[in-house]
Structure formats: structure tokens, C-alpha cells
Design brief:
- The protein is 70% helix and 8% strand.
- By secondary structure, the protein is of the alpha+beta class.
- The chain has two domains: 199 residues; 141 residues, Reverse transcriptase/Diguanylate cyclase domain (Alpha-Beta Plaits), CATH 3.30.70.270.
- It has a five-stranded mixed sheet with strand order 2-3-1-4-5, sandwiched between helices.
- Helix 2 packs antiparallel against helix 3 and helix 8 packs across helix 9.
- The chain is elongated, with a radius of gyration of 30 Å.
- 31% of the residues are buried.
Length: 359
């Protein structure tokens, strides 16, 4: 059996949408609880209203806390592709109790008003499920949990009461349950496919088509977040600007097709030598830029030596480059200029070398 392919970026977007939509859905949940609380007061007794509403309110507190925590961590960029998956489980676990508490309303004794009360409850539940399909739609376990907790006790209650009118309502609800059960996976698939398509389109707009490295747009998107974060944490980052030596002569001798193959091979070497948190960008024709978070000049030089060794082992070309470290006194444009000046110095000094920019 083929294992399901894991896509951390898809999970990140999918779970982010789940929390974002849920924050909006709290208003509809509150409206549903208040409305049915009013109906309990009118059709049963005020003694039954407050315990039920208080129980539902208390049960939702852990989930609200988790939602707020998730939002704060997202703003602080503490949630990443690698650690986002457990947050779906946190959401599901924190939803079990409030969903069950809400469904306990069907067991309140309404006596002669039983059918009217269950009919109102059915309308509220179907309305909330319609919104829930959109709110929880990116998480299949969550939406099925919500639907089962909301509808199954109601369906059981309608069949438990041995009266034709209740049984007829139960049949209608059972048909709706089966139809919605078929609809939910399709809706989930469409939502997930739309998210995957959006991610793919974003990747294409941020990726160099030949080398599959990042392009300048992706570079500046990273810098927008990296620069303030680096300054705030006093954790500088370094960049490496490198250029293939004598690339024009290589193209003239072997042809542009061979030159493209060489660029792809070099790109693979740069990716293999880099860390997961590093960004490798095709900066120009045969120019590449590496952004190295939390990296000093000495550490950057160790990476560069690794790149040079791998390049000489796998190809017949050499690199020249400049290394510069960011500081609070430099804009990113000035940092690029310092690295470019160091690259020029490396070319001027005989190529096949790297020069450190002065702090």
C-alpha cells in the first residue's frame, strides 16, 4: 500500500486556515448557544438553562486558549512547517468536550414541548454544521467530530422516543447525516487542492525556472522578516555572493546548453552544502547568493570552503566570491554592495578565492 505523501508546507497552510476560520466561527457558536439557551428557558425551565450554558462556556475555554496561543506564536514566527502538525491534534482534543457539552442539550427534559425543542435544536445544529464545513473544512477529523457530536445524539433521541412524528424527524436527520458525510470528504479535498495549487503558484513565482533555486523576489520576502528578527535577537546573519569563474568562456567552448547544465549542477551542489535554514538564490546569470541566518563570518567561511571542495570534486570550474555579515548600521542593499565589492576584489586577485568584507 502506498504511503500518503507528507507535505509540511501544505499542513502549515491547511492548519493555519483552520485556526483562522475558527476565530471567526466563535461568534456563530456563541449565537447558537444563546439562541438555544433562550429556547430552553422558554420550553423547559430556567433551572436547565444556566448549567448547560455555563458547561458549554467552560468547555470552550481550553480551545479558545489554544487558538489565542496559536495566533501569538504565528505572529512571533515560532510555528514552522516542522512543528505545525501537532497543533491540529491540539485543536481536535480541545474540541471534544465543548462539542459533547453542546450536544447534551438534547437530553434536557422538555416534556410536552419535546418535539418543538428538538426541531429548533435540529435547525441550529444544521446551521452550525453548514458553517462548520467551511470553518473546519481543512481538517477532516475535526469536521467529522463536530458533525458526529452534534447530530448523532439528536438522531438517537428522535428514534428513542416511540412516536411517529419524532421518528419522521429522525429519518430526515439520518438522510441529511448520510448526505453530509459524503459531502465533507469532497469539500475537504477541494479545499486542500486549492491550498496546494496556491502554494504551487507561489513557488513558481518565487523560483528560478532553470535551477529551481529561489529568485530575487523570494530573497526580499525572506529579508523583510529576517532583518528585524536578527536585529531584535542580536543574532547577525551573513551572505555569500559568488560567481562562476570564466563562465562566458565555458559557454563559448561548450555551448549554452552545456552552460545551463552546469548551472543546474552548481545549484545542486550549493543546496547540498547548505543547511535547511539557509536560502540559496540565483542572483544573476552565473551569480548566486546565499543568505545564512545566525551565521558569523567565520562560520560562513567554513561553509564556503565546503562549497569550494565539493565544486572542485564534481566539476571543472571554480568560484570567486565575497562574504559579508549584516549589522544594525547596514541596510540589506549596503550589505549586498559590500559583498559585491569583496567579490570584485576576489576576481581582481586571481579568481578561485573568496574575500571577507570588513565589518
Amino acid at each position: 500500500m502506498r504511503k500518503k505523501e507528507i507535505n509540511p508546507e501544505l499542513d502549515f497552510e491547511r492548519i493555519s486556515v483552520l485556526y483562522e476560520n475558527t476565530n471567526v466561527s466563535y461568534f456563530s457558536i456563541a449565537a447558537g448557544v444563546l439562541f438555544f439557551g433562550y429556547m430552553i428557558d422558554q420550553l423547559a425551565s430556567i433551572q436547565a438553562v444556566y448549567p448547560w450554558m455555563i458547561a458549554v462556556g467552560i468547555a470552550y475555554i481550553p480551545r479558545i486558549i489554544i487558538s489565542v496561543t496559536f495566533s501569538r506564536k504565528m505572529k512571533a514566527r515560532e510555528i514552522t512547517f516542522e512543528n505545525v502538525k501537532p497543533w491540529e491534534n491540539y485543536f481536535i482534543y480541545s474540541s471534544v468536550l465543548p462539542f459533547l457539552c453542546f450536544s447534551c442539550a438534547v437530553f434536557i427534559p422538555f416534556e410536552q414541548n419535546e418535539f418543538i425543542a428538538l426541531l429548533y435544536y435540529a435547525v441550529i445544529v444544521m446551521t452550525l454544521i453548514s458553517g462548520g464545513i467551511l470553518s473546519y473544512g481543512t481538517s477532516l477529523p475535526t469536521i467529522f467530530l463536530f458533525m458526529n457530536a452534534s447530530m448523532l445524539p439528536l438522531i438517537v433521541k428522535t428514534f428513542w422516543i416511540q412516536e411517529a412524528l419524532f421518528n419522521a424527524l429522525g429519518v430526515l436527520l439520518l438522510i441529511a447525516y448520510l448526505q453530509i458525510s459524503r459531502l465533507i470528504p469532497r469539500q475537504n479535498k477541494l479545499l486542500v487542492e486549492n491550498i496546494a495549487l496556491r502554494i504551487e503558484n507561489e513557488h513558481q513565482s518565487l523560483t528560478d525556472p532553470l535551477t529551481k533555486l529561489g529568485n530575487r523576489r523570494r530573497l526580499y520576502l525572506l529579508i523583510e522578516s529576517l532583518t528585524p528578527s536578527s536585529l531584535r535577537r542580536k543574532d547577525p546573519f551573513s551572505i555569500v555572493l559568488l560567481d562562476i569563474d570564466n563562465f562566458k568562456l565555458f559557454n563559448d567552448e561548450f555551448g549554452h546548453s552545456a552552460g545551463d547544465d552546469l548551472l543546474v549542477e552548481v545549484s545542486d551542489i550549493l543546496k547540498d552544502c547548505s543547511r535547511d535554514q539557509d536560502l540559496v538564490v540565483r542572483y544573476g546569470g552565473e551569480e548566486f547568493l546565499l543568505v545564512l541566518p545566525s551565521t558569523s563570518l567565520d562560520s560562513a567561511q567554513i561553509l564556503v570552503d565546503r562549497i569550494r571542495s565539493a565544486t572542485k570534486a564534481k566539476t571543472n570550474i571554480t568560484f570567486s566570491g565575497g562574504i559579508a555579515m549584516h549589522s544594525e548600521h547596514l541596510s540589506f542593499e549596503q550589505l549586498i554592495e559590500k559583498a559585491d565589492q569583496s567579490l570584485y576584489a576576489a576576481k581582481h586577485d586571481g579568481k578561485d578565492r573568496f574575500v571577507l568584507a570588513k565589518p
